[in-house]
Write a structure and sequence with these properties.
The protein is an alpha+beta fold and 382 residues long. It has helices spanning 105-109, 131-142, 153-167, 209-214, 241-253, 297-308, 321-326, 357-372, and strands at residues 21-25, 28-31, 35-38, 47-48, 85-88, 91-94, 112-114, 117-122, 125-129, 172-180, 194-201, 216-220, 258-262, 268-270, 275-280, 283-287, 313-317, 329-334, 338-345, 348-349, 379-381. The protein has three domains: 1-55, no CATH class; 78-204, D-amino Acid Aminotransferase, Chain A, domain 1 (2-Layer Sandwich); 215-372, D-amino Acid Aminotransferase, subunit A, domain 2 (D-amino Acid Aminotransferase, Chain A, domain 2). The structure holds pyridoxal-5'-phosphate (PLP). Pyridoxal-5'-phosphate (PLP) binds at residues 116, 244, 270, 273-275, 294, 296-299, 333-335. Keywords: Amino-acid biosynthesis, Aminotransferase, Branched-chain amino acid biosynthesis, Pyridoxal phosphate, Transferase.
Length: 382
C-alpha cells in the first residue's frame, strides 16, 4: 500500500473493513477519516486534518461539516484550531474571549467539577453518547462542593447541541465544567459565583489509534489514589486530577503509555483517566466503587455489553497488583480511551501481549454501537 503522496510505503495495521487505522508512517497513523495521530507519548491529543476519502470513516474521527472545511487555521494551540466559540454562563463567546480571572477560586483550590463526553458521527447522524448519564454525573459531582449549577439539564443540553451545530462538528469531544469563580480568595468559596462553561473540539483517539488495535504498555504508578475518605473519588472534581497527572507523567517519563494507580490499600484502582478491567478464565472483573474509582460511564457501558454477550462480570472486584501480571487480558475503558487493550504491565506481557479475544469482542461491540448509533437510550441526537 502506498501513502497519500503515492511514494512512501505505509504499514497496514489491520485488514480492510476491520478497523479504522489505515497505516502508520513516521510515528503517525492515518485513518479513514483522515485523522492523523502522533503516537509519541508527549502528544496524546492527536492532530487532525480535513482530508477525507469515500470510505466509511470512524465515527470518532474528527470531521468538520461542509461549511467548516477549508477555513484558515489560527495561531491557537493545534488542538483548538477548529473551535470558534465557547458557551459561558448562558452565552456564546468567541474563543479568544473565553477568559477567567487569575484569582478564580477554582484555579487556586481545584474547586471545579467537569465532564468529558463524546459526540460521534453515527449512521443516524451526530449523536452525543450517554449524554444524560454525563449530565447526571455533573450534577452529582457538584453536590458535595455546594456548587449550585444555575442552569437546568435542559438548558445545558440546548447549549451543547447548539454549540455542536453552530461549530459545525460531526464528531467532537465535549467538556462541560462548573467551578467557583472570582470573588474572595479564602478557602471558603461562600462569596464566589458558580461559573458554567461548555467547550467542544474535534479529538481523535486519546492513547492513539494504534493503541486500540495493539494495546498499550503501562506501569503501576508509585503514586497512590486518594482514599474516598479523603475526597470523593466516585465523582469528577478538577482537583483530583493532579494525582492523575503525576501518575501519567511518571509513566510517560519512564517510556510507558499510561499508568495504573493503586488505592491506599494497595489494590488496583484505575488508570489516571480510565477504569480498568481484567479477564481471567473467561470471566470479567473490575474494581468496585469502594476501591476509590471514578464511577465511569464507559465502565457501565462495557459491563452492560459484556453481560448481554453472556459474560459473567464481577463489578465489585478487589484486584491485587499480582493479579494484573497473571491476568489473561486487561483493558482500559473511558470516554477518551474508549476500550483500549493493555498488552503489558511493568514489562510483564499480558496474555499473548496483544489484544485478547474477550477484549476484542467487547471492543467490537462497543464500536458497533457508536458507529450505528441505533441504541436510542444511549444517544442524544444533535
Ligand atoms: C480517573 C478516571 N477514571 C475513569 C474514567 C472513565 O470514565 P468515563 O467512562 O465516564 O469517561 C475517567 C474519565 O473520565 C477518569 O478520569
Amino acid at each position: 500500500m502506498c501513502g497519500a503522496d503515492g511514494q512512501i510505503p505505509l504499514k497496514r495495521l489491520c485488514s480492510p473493513g476491520q478497523c479504522s487505522v489505515l497505516a502508520v508512517r513516521d510515528n503517525a497513523t492515518l485513518t479513514r477519516g483522515g485523522i492523523v495521530n502522533t503516537l509519541n507519548h508527549g502528544n496524546q491529543w492527536g492532530r487532525y486534518d480535513t482530508r477525507r476519502d469515500s470510505r466509511r470513516h470512524h465515527p470518532r474521527a474528527p470531521r468538520l461539516s461542509a461549511h467548516r472545511r477549508g477555513r484558515a487555521m489560527s495561531d491557537r494551540p493545534e488542538m483548538f484550531e477548529g473551535t470558534d466559540r465557547i458557551w459561558m454562563d448562558g452565552e456564546f463567546v468567541d474563543f479568544e474571549d473565553a477568559q477567567t480571572h487569575v484569582l478564580t477560586h477554582a484555579l487556586h483550590y481545584g474547586t471545579g467539577v467537569f465532564e468529558g463526553v463524546r459526540c460521534y458521527d453515527t449512521e443516524q447522524g451526530p449523536a452525543i453518547f450517554r449524554w444524560e448519564e454525563h449530565l447526571d454525573r455533573l450534577y452529582k459531582s457538584a453536590k458535595p462542593y455546594d456548587l449550585d449549577i444555575e442552569f437546568s439539564k435542559d438548558e445545558l443540553t440546548e447549549a451543547t447541541t447548539e454549540l455542536i451545530e453552530t461549530e459545525g462538528f460531526e464528531s467532537c469531544y465535549i467538556r462541560p465544567i462548573v467551578y467557583y469563580g472570582f470573588d474572595s480568595l479564602g478557602v471558603s468559596p461562600k462569596d464566589c459565583p458558580t461559573k458554567t462553561t461548555i467547550a467542544a473540539w474535534p479529538w481523535g483517539a486519546y492513547l492513539g489509534e494504534e493503541a486500540l488495535e495493539e494495546g498499550v504498555d503501562v506501569m503501576v504508578s508509585s503514586w497512590r489514589k486518594h482514599a474516598s475518605s479523603q475526597i470523593p473519588t466516585n465523582i469528577k472534581t478538577t482537583g483530583l486530577y493532579v494525582n492523575s497527572m503525576l501518575a501519567g507523567e511518571e509513566a510517560r517519563r519512564n517510556g510507558y503509555t499510561e499508568a495504573i494507580v493503586l488505592n491506599k490499600e494497595g489494590n488496583v484502582a484505575e488508570g489516571p483517566g480510565e477504569n480498568i478491567f481484567m479477564v481471567r478464565d473467561g470471566e470479567i472483573y473490575t474494581p468496585g466503587l469502594a476501591e476509590s474509582i471514578l464511577e465511569g460511564i464507559t465502565r457501565n457501558t462495557a459491563i452492560t455489553l459484556a453481560e448481554e454477550m453472556g459474560y459473567t462480570v464481577h463489578e465489585e472486584a478487589t484486584i491485587s497488583r499480582g493479579e494484573l501480571y497473571t491476568a489473561d487480558e486487561l483493558f482500559f475503558t473511558g470516554t477518551a480511551a474508549e476500550v483500549t487493550p493493555i498488552r503489558s504491565v511493568d514489562d510483564n506481557e499480558i496474555g499473548e501481549g496483544t489484544k485478547g479475544p474477550v477484549t476484542d469482542e467487547l471492543q467490537s461491540a462497543f464500536f458497533d454501537v457508536i458507529e450505528s448509533g441505533d441504541r436510542e437510550e444511549w444517544f442524544h441526537y444533535v
